[in-house]
Amino acid sequence: MQENILGKEKISKLFIKFSIPAIIAMLISGMQTVIDGIFVGNFIGANAMASISIGAPFIQLVIGFSMLVSVGALSYMGRSLGEGNTDLTKDIFKTSVILLSVVSFILSIIGFLFNENISSLLGANYVLIENVANYIKIISLCVLPMSLAFLFGFSDRLIEKPDLYFKGMILSLIINITLNYILIKQLEFGIIGAALATGISYSSVFLIVLGPMINKKNIINIFVGKFNKKTIIPIIYNGSSEAIGSLASATSAYLFNMSFINIIGESGVAAFTSINYIAQFGTLIVFGIADGIGSILSYNYGAKNFDRVKRTFSLAVKISLVIGTLTFITLFFFSKNLVTLFTSSNPEVLEIAIAGSKLYAFAFLLNGFNTISSSYFTAIGYAKESVIIASCHGLIFIILGISILPKLFAINGIWLTVPFAEIMTLFISFRLITKFKLSSEDNISLENEVINS
Asked: For the chain, what are the domain ranges?
C-alpha cells in the first residue's frame, strides 16, 4: 500500500521516488517554455515574445486555480489517508474533480469570448493587442484538460504512481517541439501556431495521468466517493497559498511588463522574458522539490510521524539552497551565452537582458527557503502561515519594491525588485519556521475539519 511506503520507507528514498519525477516534470515544463521562446524569438520576433509575456497572466490564472484545488486536495487527501479515513479521501477527490471542472469550463468560455478585453486589461498596447488576444483565445480551448492534468497527476502520487506526471510531460515536450517546428517555422502560423503548440502539448499530459483515475481498483478514482460541499472550504483553505502564489505571479508579471514598457518599451519586456526563460529552471527545480515532498509531509503529519516530517523538510531545504546557488552563478556569469538563444538578432534586447541578469540573480540565493517553507505549511494543513509567506514572497514585497525602486534606480530598480522581495520574505519565513512546533495536540482530526467548515 502507498500509505506504508510513505510512512515507513527511508526519507531519502522517498525523496528520490517522489521529488525526482516532480522535478523532471517541472523542468520539462520549463523546457517547453524555452523552446517556445526560441521558436517565437527567432522566427516571429521580439513583439511576439512580448505578446506571450503579456498574455501569460491569463494562463497563470488558470494554473493558479488548478493548483489551488489540486494542492489543497493532495494535502487534505494525504492527511486523511494517514489517519486511515479512506471514505473521506474519496469524497475529497470527487468534490475536487467536479469543482475544478466547473470553474475551468467557465474560465475557458470567458477567455474565448472576451480575449480582446482581457488583452487590453493586461496592458497590451496597439502594437501587441492582436497577438495577445489570439494567444489567449487559442489557449482558452485547452483550459479544462490542462487543469485536470494537475489534479490527476498530483493524485496519482497517492496510489504509487508518482512517475506518471513526468511521463506525461515527456510526451508533451515531444509534441511541443514537433508542433512548434511545423506550425511556426514551416507553416508560419505566427502567434497562433505558438498557442496551438502550447495548448495541445499541455493537454496531452491529461491523457497520460487519466488512466489510474478511471481504474476502479484504485482507492482514488472518478467513480467512487460523493460530492461533499463541506470539503470545499478545507480544500480551498489548504491550497490557498498556491493560489496566492499564482495570483502573485500573474500580478507581478503585469507590474513588471508595465514598468518595462513605461521605462524602456517593448524591448524591456522581451529582455525580461528572455531572462525568465533561463532563471525559471532553478525556480522549477525548487518547485519540483516542494511539489514532490507534499504527499510525504501530509501523510506523515496525518499519521503523527513528526520526526519524519522534520527530516523531510530539512532535506528539502538543504537541496533547494544548493540549487539556488547554482542558479545565481549561472545568471551572474553565463547569461550572455544563454540569452543569445532568444535574442541573437536584437542587440538592444541582448544588452538589456545581460545587464539585468546580474542584479536579478541575487533573488535565487534565497527563494529556495521561502518556497519550501510555504509548501511545508501547506502540506501539513497550516494554510495561514503558508499564505503569509506566499503573499509576502510574491505579492506584498513585489508591489512595494516595484513602486519604490524604479523611482530610485530606473531600470535597475525593476531588476532589483525580486531580490528585495526575497530578502524581506526570508525574515518572515525563518521566524514562522523557528517558532512552529510539531505536536500531537496540533494534529486535529480531519473529520472535525469537515464538520467545522
From this structure: 2-447
